[in-house]
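quick one before i forget lol
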Amino acid sequence: MKLKHLTFLFLLLSFFFSCKESEASKPTVKQELLVDLSKLSNEITQFQKLVTSNSSEKEIVEQFKKSRLAYKKVEWAIEYFIPETARFMNGPALDEMELEENRSFEPHGFQVMEEMIYPEYDSKSKEDLIRELNIFQSNIKQLKSTFEVITISDDYVLDAMQQNVFRVIALGITGFDSPILQSSIPETGQSLISIPETLEKIDAGNKSVSELRELTKNAQKYCTENNNFNAFNRAVFITEYLNPISKKLKTFQKEENIKNVKKSSPLKPTIETLFDKDAFDVNAFVLSKEYNYTKEKAVLGEKLFYDTSLSKNNDRSCATCHNPEKAFTDGLKTNVSLTGMNLPRNTPTLTYASLQNAQFWDMRQLDLEKQSVDVIQNKDEMHGSMENIHAKIQLDKEYVKLFKKAFPKTSKPEAWQIQNAIASYVRSLNSFDSRFDEYMRGNKNVLNNEEIEGMNLFMGKAKCATCHFTPLFNGTVPPSYSKTEHEVIGTPSDVSGKSLSSDKGRYIYNQMPQLIGAFKTPTVRNSAVTAPYMHNGVFKTLEEVVTFYNKGGGIGLGYEVENQTLPFDKLNLTVKEEKALVAFMKTLTDKKYQ
């Protein structure tokens, strides 16, 4: 009997230690990440060898694609944990600018290499390409050193994975990081496969992991079977593949009791998909907590918005130029100054203006509070005095009551609160209830075939979504949505299209050559009711806007725009496609304006 007991005990202990050993040998998220970085390094090494040995153009392009696929496997971590390095590995082939210090940095990485090898590889680029590959290898070494010392906890992994899905939606399938070669679709499948492989390191036995494995496998299959960039159906892919993956990630998080990462972000941590009605938090763009949005502030701000006493002559309010019936624009090419002269720029919509960190066409103010003061005190627009307005408000009993409700911690109205209240009203103007929004939330009957085709063109062949990012459709860059971009598109001075607009835009305030003619990328939401278009109101219809882009912007029209950031090759959209594109943009109109 004793022998049997001892044998049983021995087997039990063997099993116990075997399990422990197996558990200990299971690679962690960090270890797997370091292995994948080594694989990426090996692909770049092979790339270097092919370039150095003067291999054929076909071999070089194919190795470039393989290297990109290896990068997509680790992109979720690089972009999330070390975005500064990611910018110089897979960022746009445009100068990176630090406006505060008035300096710029030349771009590096895959998109720079892509321009060197495609559509035609010139051996004259060999030296530059080798230099880029050497820089890339140095960045990989830097990444390895960083990942070896940082903590990668489960909450950060989940946050990074969710952000990666949003990146695929807003950047991956739009061709943002593969603008010439257009290899985005197969790369998307590779990006998604990393999700279940990573979550297995947290809990391989969780049912949601196996479901995510199936979901990502099906998504990858869809990408493989529909890998033509222009023909790819993004409407189907987002609603039937990406949104379910996003929701399942949230389910896994809840099942594993993993807390949300505490951070200031425009995207709320509780959302299931990028298209949830309350996905965005306007407070992520405020100066500090005391400026946070409240309904009481918005009520006060609305009264101030329509109050003509804010202007010097008591004859203009904010609503004079921002008419709520026209989605807070005025319908004019440019409005008229107090002296009867035309103002230099078109009045932009205030809807969704709170979801960006730069205001005015030239981006001269960073927040809505400064924007309101700028307009009120501008001698051509309202010519008011914040000091006088503050004095008037303190003598108005109704205003004093509203201020007390909006700012209960202060005994009397303060000057900064006037700005904050107006800004809060503007922050209340984001509806996210267009027909597009309904479709993305599951109502498949709300868009017709032409509108869906237009959406696929917008996010694909027409390249609109590489500047007007989903789902804000402005220049606030996903997936962190923490930076707002400008573009140089070469807008004509008048409808004849014979000359370039002389307005230097952002260059007026930051005199760097890259910024000549640079303007903030506005939202396309509500564009159907905010005509005319562009900073100078040059185009009366959306059809004219589409035609301008189809021709390649300013350079396409024959202007000299050396710093144009808009791709200047023709889009080759057919008349039918142009019509579909306009039809889609009309689906972005909020219910109140339909």
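fyi Confidence is low (pLDDT under 50) at residues 6-24.
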